[in-house]
Amino acid sequence: MVRPKRIELAPQVEIGRRPREIQLLINIAEPDPEYQPGLLTDEASLLDAVGTAPDDIQRRLDAYFGVPLGISLRTPIWQYVDAIKRHFPGWPDDWPPAASA
């Protein structure tokens, strides 16, 4: 008897620690909820999560943040969130950042 193969998903621990921030990035990358993912793992990047063209994702992120972040779209989403928070420590609660006087 052949046993069916078990499918094991990658962990979702890091995704679970940043759900709001990750959803915000996905909303920026793909605004239409119909084309947003239902399930993400810690290994998923923005390119894995949405079918939007990479140039469009990058353009939307650059417009939202006002600067090119210089973070690869192949970076796992939870690491992308952490990199953004290094650039903008108050994000997303204190957004947009206050202008310097």
What attributes does this structure have?
101 residues, 5 helices, elongated, mainly alpha, 43% helix
Quick overview:
The protein is an all-alpha fold and 101 residues long.
Explain what the structure shows.
With 101 residues, this protein is mainly α. The chain has one domain (13-87). Helix content is 43%, strand content 0%. It is built from five helices and no strands. It has helices at residues 13-17, 19-29, 46-49, 54-65, 77-87. The chain is elongated and about 70 Å long. The mean pLDDT is 89.
Assign an overall shape: elongated
Order of helices and strands: HHHHH
Q: Largest sheet, if any?
A: none
How many β-strand runs?
0
Poorly predicted runs = none
Intertermini distance: 73 Å
- Our estimate of the beta-strand percent is under 5%
Number of domains: 1
Structural class, please?
mainly alpha
Residues in helices, as a percent range: 40-55%
Total number of helices: 5
Mean pLDDT: 89
Radius of gyration: 16 Å
